[in-house]
Structures are given as structure tokens and as C-alpha cells.
């Protein structure tokens, strides 16, 4: 009989790798999760995201995507800033995994249907299904985020911002919803608000694809607009 895992003992990095590398190399996600939970609690594994050995951090980041829940978002968010690019990428993937499975069982079906409709570019029907998902489970942050995406793709930018704000209220580290608000504000011409959202998202996840470029473009555009305004004032006052 296996002893129940203790939640108050630190994990030896070598023992962690020895237990989890075989199922990881075999690409057996179920076996990996079982091997981890048989010996340790997710909170202990989360602590390994600060381990000095990069391989331990990488395996911990992968494992948290399978055994973690919304209570572990904060520690994974810290790992987004890891000096090792692979650790940060794996932490991001694990966060998405946790967010996508965080809804209650009744909300799962309309959520999945909404995602399928979104992938098929059927945005109005996707909105209908995702609205149903958040009505069933108002704590389902990812359903709000996907609803925000559907609204955005349907050119309903104000509605998208509202949905993204709901996601961020539930999960303050949700860099996807924060950057989504930035996209909407940019479309609405609210460039300063868009810039604030992009910068906030980048502080949480420094390696977000395209966000640094979007910040640079916005800063240039805002500066050009400011310079044009000063030129116009100078011309009037001359």
C-alpha cells in the first residue's frame, strides 16, 4: 500500500526527476500525473518551480498543467518570468490547461461547443454558446475570455472588453484577457488604454508573442500623434 503524500515535506529534485522522467519521455500524460500525485501534492510540485536545477523546473512546469488547479495560478505566473525560456513556455501552457478545465461539469458542453464554433468562424453562435457557459458557471474565467475573443472577432469591441474584464476579475493573472482588452481598445482608438493593457500583460508574461511589437507600434503612433498636435498648435499660434 502506498503512503499518502505529505504536504509539508520538500521534494528532492533528483527523486522527482527519477519518478517523472520515464512517463514524460514516454509521452504518457496519465502515467505522469499518477506518478506525481502518488507521491506528492500539487503545492509541493509548485514549489519546485523555484528549484535551482533547470530540468527540475521544466518537469515541474509540465506536471502542474496536469495536476494543478486555479489555486496554483500564482506560482505558475511567477514561473512565466523564469530565466529559462522553456520553463516560461511550459508554465504558460500549464496555465492555459488549468484555465480551460476550470469550469464546472454543467458548463463544459456549451463551452466546448462554443470553442468549436469559434474555430469554424461562426462567431454569433459561438457567442450564444459561451454566454450559456458563463451563465451556468459565473466563476468560469476562461469561458469569459473565450466569449471576449468571440465578441472581438465579431467586431463587438465594447462587449469584448466587458467579457475580458469578467475574466480578469476572476483571474487577475490572466494575461490573455488583459491583452485582449488591449486589442479592443486599440480598435476603438483608445491608444493609451490599449498601451496600459499591453504593458500589464507583458509584466505578467514577458514572452507573449507580438505584445512587445504591439507596444512599440502604439508608442510610435502615440508619439507621432502628439508631435502632429504640437505642430498644429504651433502653426495656429504663429
Mind explaining what this structure looks like?
This protein is mostly helical and 238 residues long. The protein contains 13 helices and no strands. It has helices at residues 13-25, 29-39, 42-47, 54-67, 73-79, 85-100, 105-119, 123-136, 141-153, 157-170, 175-187, 191-204, 211-237. Mean pLDDT is 91; it is low at 231-237.
Q: Layout of helices and strands, plus pairs?
A:
Blueprint: H1 13-25, H2 29-39, H3 42-47, H4 54-67, H5 73-79, H6 85-100, H7 105-119, H8 123-136, H9 141-153, H10 157-170, H11 175-187, H12 191-204, H13 211-237
Task: Provide a concise account of the structure shown.
The protein is mostly helical and 238 residues long. It contains 13 helices and no strands.
Report the total helices: 13
- How many distinct beta strands? 0
- Strand residues, percent: under 5%
Alpha-beta classification: mainly alpha
Helix percentage: over 70%
**Whole-Å distance between the termini?**
89 Å
Provide the succession of SSEs: HHHHHHHHHHHHH
Main sheet properties: none
Taken from the alpha-carbon principal axes, the silhouette is globular
Q: Measured on Cα atoms, how large is the radius of gyration?
A: 21 Å
**Mean pLDDT, nearest integer?**
91
Low-confidence stretches: 231-237
